[in-house]
């Protein structure tokens, strides 16, 4: 049988490639914060920083990469975060390192490493930055996400627990997002041991009524079964014994005081015995911040935290009680985008638009731009455009109050036209007086 002849002509000719190159996209579970989201994002970060600082928290910045052992020893080896979700690898020097999945451990490491033990207590530290967890991406759950973490180190007092919850409430109030704190106490390590036994007894013979992951959790970290999002597991967990009934007397008193403070601060809360948190280092108070409207079992928390009195000692420091909160910024951002009217954010983006009508005005426009910017105005302009209509449209979109127009005549006369964008009234002023004129209009009422 003869073989079909190869079509040599096409092979020998250089290939004309018309095929498009593959577009590289963000990694699964990672997101860009694109310019249209930035106004919300920056506003959110500004509010978080303002409130953290007004509650007396000082900023700290820790590295994104840490020794893997830091998370194994703090969050715990049997936890989902460490067992399944750590982005970890050996670096070129052979060290086992990990991208941080949360901030509490890093902040405590820094506290010990830099001898902050000698600073006045309680020491309040906050950090905002990216976290990494190799979780299954879905709405509100990413592989890279950001948190505000606020940690109070060095006080065992219940008022501190109430204060970190109060900080969370203040932030959500400033963002106009109604929330409810779900609070619980998991007591001491001893309580945990007793409760785990009770849980295991409860689930004995009921293994077929829970999901596969929870079956494994019963062996590694039984309390995690209570956090499971699967319907079958949630239904059964309604009948489990309550951890609050196992509390040791000191933890009980501590918890009652936390609730008293929350009442005193007028902060609403729901007692929720299922808030046990999946990390090993927590003791006593644990809480989550849920959006008010979704305050059901399936709510996706906007934040969470609690007390961790033995973590610093476990990491090699002196025994130091502490308590903190972490807010998830992406989830809050989604609320902000959905709820807030655009103008709240865009109205303070720019004060002025500088419009120009010819190539010749480029140099002059830069001079005015510098002058106005140095005087404190936020000025928008677009050198690529020189027809007035499209520049006025752009100015309208940015919702600026005034557009300054620089045409041929104005360059020669050394003047500028001030156009009031609300009523279209225009006035010509001397170029040297532009800063004074604009201050009069924008800052003096
Ligand atoms: P956690 O450290 O798990 O207690 O999380 C604190 C907060 O961070 C949560 O309440 C969420 O708002 C947010 N968060 C946790 N994991 C993720 C994730 N994978 N993607 C987005 N936000 C998250």
Structure description:
The chain is of the alpha+beta class and 445 residues long. Helix content is 38%, strand content 20%. The chain is built from 17 helices and 16 strands. The chain has helices spanning 8-12, 35-54, 68-74, 80-83, 104-113, 158-174, 189-203, 212-220, 231-237, 249-264, 311-314, 329-339, 342-346, 362-374, 388-397, 408-413, 434-443, and strands at residues 58-59, 65-67, 88-90, 96-99, 123-132, 144-153, 179-185, 269-271, 283-291, 303-307, 322-328, 352-356, 379-381, 402-406, 415-420, 426-430. It has an eight-stranded mixed β-sheet with strand order 1-5-6-11-10-9-7-8, with helices on both faces. The protein has a five-stranded mixed β-sheet with strand order 13-12-14-15-16, with helices on both faces. Helix 14 links the parallel strand 12 (352-356) and strand 13. Helix 2 (35-54) runs antiparallel to helix 6 and helix 6 runs parallel beside helix 10. The chain is elongated and about 90 Å long. The N and C termini lie far apart (95 Å). 35% of the residues are buried. Residues 1-11 have low confidence and may be disordered.
């Amino acid at each position: 049988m003869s073989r079909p002849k190869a079509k040599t002509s096409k092979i020998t000719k250089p290939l004309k490639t018309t095929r498009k190159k593959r577009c590289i996209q963000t990694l699964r579970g990672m997101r860009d914060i694109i310019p249209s989201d930035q106004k919300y994002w920056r506003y959110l970060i500004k509010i978080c920083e303002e409130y953290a600082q007004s509650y007396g928290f000082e900023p700290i910045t820790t590295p994104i990469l840490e020794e893997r052992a830091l998370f194994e020893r703090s969050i715990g080896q049997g936890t989902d975060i460490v067992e399944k979700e750590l982005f970890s690898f050996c670096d070129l020097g052979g060290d086992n390192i990990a991208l941080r999945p949360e901030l509490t451990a890093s902040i405590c490491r820094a506290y010990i490493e830099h001898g902050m033990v000698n600073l006045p207590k309680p020491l309040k530290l906050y950090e905002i930055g990216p976290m990494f967890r190799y979780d299954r991406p879905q709405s509100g759950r990413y592989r890279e996400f950001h948190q505000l973490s606020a940690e109070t180190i060095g006080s065992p007092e219940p008022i501190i627990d109430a204060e970190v919850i109060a900080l969370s409430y203040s932030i959500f109030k400033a963002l106009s997002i109604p929330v409810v704190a779900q609070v619980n106490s998991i007591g001491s390590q001893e309580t945990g041991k007793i409760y785990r036994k009770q849980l295991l007894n409860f689930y004995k013979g009921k293994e077929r009524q829970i999901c596969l992951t929870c079956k494994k959790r019963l062996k590694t970290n039984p309390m995690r079964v209570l956090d499971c999002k699967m319907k079958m597991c949630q239904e059964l967990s309604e009948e489990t014994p309550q951890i609050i009934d196992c509390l040791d007397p000191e933890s009980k008193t501590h918890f009652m005081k936390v609730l008293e403070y929350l009442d005193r601060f007028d902060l609403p809360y729901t007692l929720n015995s299922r808030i046990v948190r999946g990390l090993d280092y927590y003791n006593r108070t644990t809480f989550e911040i849920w959006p008010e409207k979704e305050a059901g079992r399936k709510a996706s928390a906007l934040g969470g935290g609690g007390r961790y009195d033995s973590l610093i000692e476990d990491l090699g420091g002196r025994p130091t009680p502490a308590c903190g909160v972490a807010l998830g910024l992406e989830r809050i951002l989604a609320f902000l985008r959905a709820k807030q009217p655009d103008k709240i954010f865009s109205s303070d983006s720019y004060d002025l638009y500088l419009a120009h009508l010819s190539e010749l005005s480029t140099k002059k426009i830069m001079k005015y731009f510098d002058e106005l910017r140095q005087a404190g105005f936020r000025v928008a302009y677009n050198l690529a455009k020189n027809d007035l209509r499209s520049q006025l449209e752009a100015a309208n979109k940015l919702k600026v109050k005034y557009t300054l127009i620089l045409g041929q005549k104005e360059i020669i006369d050394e003047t500028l036209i001030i156009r009031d964008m609300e009523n279209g009234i225009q006035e010509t002023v001397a170029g040297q007086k532009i800063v004074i004129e604009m201050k009069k209009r924008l800052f003096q009422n």
